[in-house]
Write a structure and sequence with these properties.
The protein is α+β, with helices and mostly antiparallel strands. The protein has one helix and four strands, in the order E-E-E-E-H. Strand 2 and strand 3 form a beta hairpin. The chain is elongated, with a radius of gyration of 17 Å.
Length: 100
């Protein structure tokens, strides 16, 4: 049985307002023989929606599997939302300026 690992990545930082806690997403992955494969919670490999290939990354010596899994999770989430230019689809909260 594969060892399914979990990573949490931040998808939106808090804006500073008391009601905005930000948001995060959870990703799942396995590592076998230095190959990181993104999976669902049951360990089924995820596939790229463009070409149908498994979403994998060959880990280089000293490379952090958590960091790579976090980046891939963020890419998967953004792709599934259809917002490759993340952040441009949300309202921008500007700080209040003094004066007029």
């Amino acid at each position: 049985m594969r060892d399914i690992r979990q990573v949490t990545c931040i998808t939106k930082n808090p804006s500073g307002g008391k009601d905005d806690m930000g948001s995060c997403e959870v990703g799942f992955y396995t590592v076998e023989g230095g190959l990181l494969t993104m999976t669902d919670a049951d360990g089924v490999p995820l596939r790229d929606s463009n070409n149908g290939e498994r979403i994998t990354h060959r880990l280089a010596p000293g490379e952090s599997e958590k960091a790579i899994a976090s980046r891939l999770t963020l890419k998967i989430i953004r792709t599934s939302r259809g917002d490759e230019m993340a952040g441009f689809s949300r309202r921008i909260d500007y700080p209040k300026w003094g004066g007029a």
